[in-house]
Each structure stands twice: as structure tokens, then as C-alpha cells.
Amino acid sequence: MSRQDFTSSKVTSKEEAPFDINELFFSRTDDRGVIISGNEVFRRISGYTWDELVGAPHKIIRHPDMPKGVFYILWERLKKGLATGAYVKNRANDGRHYWVYAIFSPVDGGYVSVRLKPTSSLFESVISLYAESFNREQEDGLSPVESAGNIRAKLRDLGFPSYSAFSSYAVAQEVIARADVLARVEDERLQSLIRILPVLEALDEQHASLFASFAKTRGIPSNMRIVASRLEPAGGPISAISQNYRLMSDEASTHLGSFQGDDGSQSLPAAVAKKVYGALFMMAASSIQCEVKNVAAEGLVSGVEADGFQGEVDILDQLSEGYMAESRSVLQSVCSEAMALARSAKDLRQLVTGLDSIRVLCRVEAGRLSAQSVALTPVINQLDRFHVEIDSTLEQILTLADKVAAMIETSMARSFNCPLDKLPAAERNLSQVYA
What is the superkingdom listed in this entry's lineage (predicted)? Predict the structure, then answer.
């Protein structure tokens, strides 16, 4: 079949092609996006025959209302070997439309796309975002890459630091909403991870505030030495105190580096949040992959699927196992980094306690100098104010860091019914799946 533009010549309809929320369907393509196979639900909803589908580019079902920027983002990620998800509006052969949330996964020789019916409250926001993005493409002549940048900017306005974070949050919300509609037991792990995200956001804000507070103290030791030099020889102890304060302040500032992620490009709370988003994606996608694998196996046994479908079941089985293994791995990683965050906060608390002691010594020495310390008083008062800021911020960081660690440790350990350090490591690296 030729790779013509299938979306330009077909009539569209405002009617929706119906399918039930309990139905899952999938298709498999080669690395160019040409359809190789799929299940019977996919064929039925699309309205095509298998002869029309197999060998056709997947855009045979693309709806013309879809922003090109979305597909740019998807292909950009897939070509890097990254699993991802997206809301997609498709068009059936008769022109009717149907919305799906699709999970795209790289496999040997191509990709597998598993789709479910979107029902979460987030879905309505996405419809508006897509319509606005599509209109900008049409009216402003945005290229796919420009449209992709616009979509990412809109998602940041909604509070998502990256497209990865958005797709992770979206698939988790869809899985939760689907379980609710189908009256299934909710996966508490997903809700637990979602509840951690605003705590990490607050922690990141306090982290930035702490950096700003420490920055204010950097010039104080120099000011103290200048004042002390005018008090010689009585100012000698003040000079020694200022030197000790500078050394300990430098040590505390260096320790703040432990609040940075591995590559130093973001704070540790932000790095932990990125991994929490990764865990959301892997866990939610894992549950869908497991279910669609079972759906495919049942279709094969019942005779709904055609001969030769066993190969598709095997691919879905391998994909499901990979997602489950990666889910365990990423949860371990999240727990480990959350504990490291709490430890770093406690270590910094000890360093700041040492700085407080030096500050108190400075005030005691100023009292001993009596009237001679008039010029030193403004510097000490400034130091006091900064330490009040630092102590308050650090106290909040300690509280939030402990809360994150407790939430992750409790919910994750309970979800697997065994200590996290006893879980088997995944066979694949997280960076190969989610970034």
C-alpha cells in the first residue's frame, strides 16, 4: 500500500465511534510506523479490514484535528528508545472519531501501541489544549517542532515540568479513573505517588529559599573582619570568630551541593520528583500492559483472533514482564533517593547548628567589648536575621524530607509486601525506558 496522506481525502464526522471502557486494544508497527498487526478490537473500532490495515502507515487512522506537534514529540521520544504516552484523537474508516490514551513502547523491529478509553478529569483539559494547539498551527503556520515547543510550554503552565511528567501523570489518572468506573480495587501505590508530588514541589521551593538565605551570609565574615581590624588589638577574637564562621559557612554551602541531582542541573527534590513521575508511568503502564496481554491471550484461545496471533501474545508477554521488572527497579530508586534526601537535610542541620554556635560566640564577644562593639552590632543583627531565615527554612525542609521518605517507604514496602531492599533488580536500566 502506498504511503499517501490518508487523512486528506476522507470525510470526517462529528459522531463518535463507540467502544467500551473495559476494552483494550493494540497495534504493532515497524520502525517506520507501518502497521504489522493488532488485535480484533483495533480492527473493529478502526472500521478497516486487515487487508487495508496491514502494510498501511499508522496515520491511516490519524484524525486531521490532531496537532502535528503531538506526533513530533512522540516520534522524538520513540526514536530515542523511550516509552511514552499520549492522548490521541483517531478517525475510523467511516469518518467517525474516537479518543484514546495510547502507551507507546519500543520493541524489537518497531513499536507497540496499547490504547484505552480516556475518562479522567484531565482529559477535558487536554481536549482544550489540543484544540488551541491545532488552531495555532493553522492560523500562525507553526511547524511541527514549533508546535511541540508550544505544547510543552502550555504543559509547564499547567504545572508539569516536562512532557514526560505530563504523560506519566496522565496515564496514572486514566488507570485510576478506569478502575473506578469498572468498580475495581484501586492501586493505592499510584495514589501514594501522586500525593508525594506536591510535597516534593514544596520541598523544592524551600530548597531554593535555603540557597538564597545562604547567599546572603557570604559577605558577613568579611564585614566582621573589617570591623575587627578597627578594634585591634581588642578585635582579635572577632577576627578569629569571623574566620571560623567563613570556614563553616563554606562547608555548609558545599554540603548544599548534596541537594543537587546527579548531574547538577536540578535540585535533589526535583530529581526525586522526576523519578516519582517515572514510577507513576511504569506502574500505571505496567498494569495496562498486563491486562492487554491477558486480553490478547483470551482472544487467541476463544478464536476471536486469527491464526498466527500467538506471536503477538508472546511480544505482549515480554513487554509486560519488562514493565513489571522496571516498576520494581524504579520504586527502589525512588525510595533510595528519598532516604538520601532526608539524610542530607539532617547533615545540613548539624552544620547549621555549628554556625549558630559561632554566631552566639560573636555576640558574647561583642558584649565583652561593650561600647567598642557599636560598629559590630549591625553586622551581628544582620547575621541573626539571616539565621532565623535559615533555621526556619531548614526546619521545614527536614519536616518535608522526612514526610517524603515516610510516605514512600510505607506505601511502597506495603505494596510489595516485602522490604524494598529485598526486591530483585530490574534487568534494564530506567534511562532506556523513561526520561
Answer: Bacteria
From 36, 44, 133, select the one nearest 96 (Cα to Cα). 44
Window from 77-91, 216-230, 273-287 with minimum mean pLDDT: 216-230
- Average pLDDT estimate for 389-411: 82
Contact 45, 71 (CB under 8 A): no
Radius of gyration in angstroms for the set of CA atoms belonging to the chain, rounded to a whole number: 28
Residue 272 and residue 203: Cα distance in Å, rounded? 11
Q: Is 263 a residue whose pLDDT tops 90?
A: no
Q: Cis (ω within 30 of 0) for the bond into 233?
A: yes
Provide the whole-model pTM.
0.83
Give me the CATH topology for the region 1-186. Answer: Beta-Lactamase (3.30.450)
Please count the other Cβ atoms lying within 10 Å of the Cβ belonging to residue 63.
Answer: 19
User: 82-106: b or e for each residue (b if 16 or more CB lie within 10 Å)?
Assistant: bbbbbbbbbbbbeebbbbbbbbbbb
Residues of the chain with CATH 3.30.450.20: 1-186
Q: What are 49's strand-pairing partners?
A: none
